[in-house]
TrEMBL record:
It comes from Roseivirga misakiensis. The lineage of its organism: Bacteria, Pseudomonadati, Bacteroidota, Cytophagia, Cytophagales. Residues 317-468 form the Bacterial sugar transferase domain. The chain crosses the membrane at residues 7-28, 63-88, 94-118. PANTHER family: COLANIC BIOSYNTHESIS UDP-GLUCOSE LIPID CARRIER TRANSFERASE, UNDECAPRENYL-PHOSPHATE N-ACETYLGALACTOSAMINYL 1-PHOSPHATE TRANSFERASE-RELATED. It holds the Pfam family Bac_transf. GO terms for molecular function: phosphotransferase activity, for other substituted phosphate groups. This is Bacterial sugar transferase domain-containing protein. Coiled coil: none annotated.
């Protein structure tokens, strides 16, 4: 459905709601005396509509695969407006919220059930997930040269890098005899991505750039190693607020960056690598320059990414493979450094997976992220996805495109036909291999297609007892 059609349907839905509103409260003079009440009603109506998107469910009956969508619609509306109704009744003011919500929820429920009965729901042919492919540049590496022979300026800031580059050999394309050096560490540039893209444009395909940075991960580790532990935790909280949170506040971030020439910015190894990949480079090597500084040998291998926004804030949206292979945006609390989503494939190439199906030695996870992931707190915002009908309570987690590509085709064909879930299988070090994970998840999908809700209830309690038994996520 197009965005234009969705807006028209939402407008029609609003008009129907206003007609019901007028039928229950026809005296317009009373509207004027309760304009604040009406504004509250409209605000909650729009919030409920955004959460449940009932107009979309009516227009796309094939998407109505379970009664849960209808129940969620009624519960959200009824719950929100019942609270408001009680609040007004307590103040001796009558406002017919319950009657309105009863009619709206009832009429919508009847309509959805009628559509479901009249048009039998059939599974569509799976839509192959479409991932925005990176445009790989064509080039041939024809010459092998010592870095010190082709780098004109052998200093970054006040740091002489000649000794670190001594004996380092790099392959270059025929038309790229010079290696470009970013003169300052990346955190000192106000617009890092713009500077990296400028560097990208100045290099031929296959050209090499040298980029230095000081990862904040080192400072974090030093703070957390302070004794006693309570002091280190208090300092870490202060550090997160002062160096990580404040520079992310809109407008204030620009002031802080200008005032400190970028020194206020805390940039991690993950964010640095992610920005480099985001702007069209690939990392070939990382050299330790000493004093906490590192030098990345990066090659111009792709076109810069477009149409994908990096994640920065505490609540993030990530593209995932959803029902019928469609792309859905999953809400999560941040547990990884910014730009981590662009590094998943690189981390897999470097470290592969462990027995629990997680990436080995995943440096993208923050210190506090390890804690919230252990207790699945980062997954809580997915309740919004459940309310919107993107996922169900029990099921296989919604996966990233890269992680999904690791599964065999027979699994993908079944996965397309079942909505992802909020409560998913838990795997730990006792899991034998990734193949065992595939088989366990595949068995659940087959059982769900055969038994539906019964399979979900059984699996929910199996997972519950696993958690009680001490199984934890990594």
């Amino acid at each position: 459905m197009t965005d234009k059609t969705s807006r028209i349907l939402l407008l029609v839905y609003v008009l129907v709601q206003l007609l019901i509103f007028y039928a229950l409260w026809p005296t317009l003079s009373e509207w004027e005396s309760h304009w604040s009440d009406i504004l509250i009603f409209e605000a909650l109506f729009l919030l409920s509509t955004w959460l449940t998107q009932p107009y979309r469910k009516v227009a796309e009956p094939d998407a109505i695969l379970d009664i849960g969508v209808i129940i969620r619609h009624a519960v959200i509306w009824g719950g929100l407006f019942m609270l408001i109704e009680f609040w007004f009744l307590a103040n001796k003011v009558y406002f017919p919220y319950l009657e309105i919500i009863g009619l709206l929820s009832g009429s919508t429920t009847v309509l959805l059930i009628a559509v479901k009965l009249v048009k039998k729901t059939e599974l569509k042919e799976a839509i192959k997930p479409v991932k925005r492919a990176r445009v790989k540049l064509e080039f041939q590496l024809t010459q092998q040269i010592n870095l010190t022979d082709v780098v004109k300026d052998l200093s970054i800031g006040k740091k002489d890098i000649k000794k670190s580059l001594s004996g380092r050999v790099v392959k270059l394309p025929e038309n790229g005899s010079e290696v470009k050096v970013l003169p300052k560490p990346v955190k000192h540039y106000l617009n890092i991505n713009a500077k990296l893209k400028e560097l990208h444009e100045r290099l031929p395909a296959g050209g090499v750039a040298l980029i230095s940075y000081t990862p904040e991960d080192i400072r974090e580790q030093k703070i957390l190693s302070i004794k006693p532990g309570l002091l280190s935790k208090l300092l870490y909280i202060f550090y997160l607020f002062w160096f990580r949170a404040l520079p992310k506040v809109p407008y204030l971030s620009q002031v802080l960056l200008y005032a400190s020439a970028g020194r206020w910015r805390a940039i991690s190894r993950t964010e640095t690598w992610g920005r480099i990949l985001y702007t069209g480079f690939d990392m070939e090597e990382e050299l330790d320059l000493g004093d906490g500084r590192f030098l990345i040998v990066a090659r111009k291998q792709f076109e810069p990414m477009t149409g994908v926004k990096p994640s920065f804030y505490p609540i993030i949206q990530l593209n995932r493979v959803g029902f019928h292979g469609k792309t859905i945006k999953i809400f999560k609390f941040r547990s990884m450094y910014p730009y981590s989503e662009f590094l998943q494939e690189k981390v897999y190439e470097m470290n592969s997976l462990d027995n629990s199906g997680k990436f080995k030695d995943d440096f993208r996870i923050t210190q506090y992220g390890k804690y919230i992931r252990k207790f699945w707190l980062d997954e809580l915002p997915q309740m919004v996805n459940w309310l919107r009908g993107d996922i169900k309570i029990v099921g296989i987690r919604a996966m990233s495109f890269h992680y999904f590509s690791l599964y065999p085709q027979w699994y993908k064909d079944i996965y397309y036909t079942v909505k992802p879930g909020f409560v998913s299988p838990i795997f730990d070090e006792n899991t034998a291999s990734f193949d065992e994970i595939v088989n366990i998840e595949g068995d659940y999908l087959k059982k769900y297609r055969k038994n539906g809700l019964k399979a979900d209830v059984t699996f929910f309690f199996e997972t519950f007892f696993q958690i009680i038994g001490g199984v934890r996520s990594k």
